[in-house]
Amino acid sequence: MDFLILSLIKLAVVMFVFMTTLAYLQWIERKVIAHIQLRVGPNRVGPHGLLQPLADVIKLITKEGLVPSHVNLVFYCLAPVIAVFFALIAISVIPFGGEFTVPFTNIHTSMQLTDLNIGLLLILGLSGMGVYGVALAGWASNNKYSLIGGLRSSAQMISYELPLALSLAAPLLLVNTLSLREIVNLQDGFYFGILPKWSIFALPFPQILSFILFMIAAFAETNRVPFDLPEAENELVAGFHTEYSSMQFASFFMAEYANMVTVCSVATLLFLGGWHPIIPDMLGGNYIASLLFIASGAMMIFHGLQPARKWDKFTFPVFGVVFILVGLVFLIPIVQTLLMPVFWFCAKVLFLLFIFIWIRGTLPRFRYDQLMRFAWLFMFPVALANLLVTAFLVALF
Amino acid sequence: MDAILFFVFAAIAVACAINLVLQSHPISSALSLIGVMGALGVLYLLLGGEFIAMAQLIVYAGAIMVLFIFVIMLLNAGAEPPGPKAKYLKFLGAPLLIVLLGLVGYFVQDQLGATELVKFGSKSDFGSPASVGMALFTTYLLPFEVTSVLILIAILGAIVLARKEVD
């Protein structure tokens, strides 16, 4: 019974945080892209546009769900459900932090919904199933732009799944397990007391190349710029989701962001040591969160004192105080031991997500033949050679 | 619990398999086949073969069926029209199928006799990735490698056949 209640509580917390992250990821993306392009970004709904995601959700829910008359109705309705289902379910095996005992009780649990000993394979399987959502949407829309988008997407995902899986296999040789929790636990510790033992630094063969290959393949798997050919606006209107509106359109959008979060979490767990700190505790690693929050709070108050716009006088100091309070909460020892791993995990995932957005603001789109040539003639052989070298070195040492 | 899950997913597998044959549109059939593969994956999981279950999901439901769907979409294949004798075949087929299933069931029971009962969810590392890898690369190394050569030959054959058509 305890197990059931605990699982339900964890499920509710994870679902709430995950959904909020997905909604606000879109706000972050719009803001970051805007600043890269020297614009302001959304700033009308709420202070600094912070209520924009809410407004978008209300708009999408209340919008009329238009179904074109020429579509294949069953598959047209099924496609967004498939896409969003397989994208959201992957979060269930991702560990966010270490094991802990719930305060004031003696229930011992881990910060993860379920720990499978084939967790990584499950994520690969689910990401493979996600292709059907996009492919079916393109086909069922009965529209040539949608169909080309769907075809491009399935061809691209099949091609990039190979280097993705191969670049995942190399760090697995170092850790020898498929359970995500075990993978992270084996990356604990520091070389010479300063260099973390993450897979990208691990002996005998640092997996930096695998990490880069994995991130490139991940961009292609999630259909992000520069690999966003399935939805290339200037060629295909909106690609596979041209004919979709309201919540069905939102499902595809949510699936894309959920896939991004999953992929970044997997990269964090496999290559960046999951929830293990960058800086050892001896050098004050536990106080990084407080330092960051208090510093950003102080900066906000400083900007609030010299407002560039009228409303900054009020909003910046309020956010500054909130950030400083969060920073102070991180100084409480019990909170520190509980939340520091989660903080490190979230920080790494958010950093990778920021790279995703940064690249979207920086790089142009590939041509389709360049995309395919790159996958088969560069990524695939390099990933294979990397796996081979890793295997030899692991066998030798 | 295991038995309930077994019957649920076995029923899904059979229903999808029947649907696969009944549907006239290739995409519907292909999707039913994915349903069969997924349900089989769950059945493997119930038997404790977790690696096989995930391989089933990744390789069959994920990779191979995506290729099927890709080809169907690329050729834009429409619904198959029923053949000229479809009407009788429908009435003749059902009794013949039942007779066939009955005969197969009878012979299987007659020949194999009483066997050990199936155990759900074995806790040993019988189906773990490590034990499957161990078996493939030690006991069954030769068949494993020979199969890979076989697949390579099939791929080469496919390329040769496809080339001829283009020229």
Low-confidence stretches of chain B: none
Which oligomeric form is depicted? heterodimer
Main-sheet strand order of chain A equals: 1-2
- Strand tally of chain A, please? 4
Largest binding interface between chains:
A-B, 25 and 22 residues
Class per helix and strand makeup of chain B: mainly alpha
Mean pLDDT of chain A: 83
Main sheet of chain B? Answer: none
Counting helices, strands and paired strands, the structural category of chain A is mainly alpha
From the N-terminal CA to the C-terminal CA of chain B, the straight-line distance is 58 Å
Shape of chain B: globular
Q: How far is it from the N-terminal to the C-terminal residue of chain A, by CA?
A: 47 Å
Strand content of chain A: under 5%
Low-confidence stretches of chain A: none
Outline of the structure:
Chain A has 397 residues and is mainly α. Chain A has helices at 2-36, 52-62, 73-89, 119-140, 144-175, 180-185, 208-221, 233-236, 246-271, 288-305, 312-329, 333-362, 368-396, and strands spanning 99-101, 108-110, 190-191, 195-196.
Properties at a glance:
heterodimer, A: 397 residues, mainly alpha, two-stranded antiparallel ribbon, B: 167 residues, 0% strand
Q: Could you walk me through the main structural features you see in this protein, from its secondary elements to its overall organization?
A:
- The complex is a heterodimer of chains A (397) and B (167).
- Chain A is mainly α and 397 residues long.
- In chain A, 66% of the residues lie in helices and 3% in strands.
- Chain A is built from 13 helices and four strands.
- In chain A, a hairpin with a 3-residue loop joins strand 3 and strand 4.
- In chain A, helix 4 runs antiparallel to helix 9 and helix 9 packs across helix 12.
- The relative contact order of chain A is 0.13.
- Chain B has six helices and no strands.
- At the A-B interface, helix 4 and helix 5 of A face helix 2 and helix 3 of B.
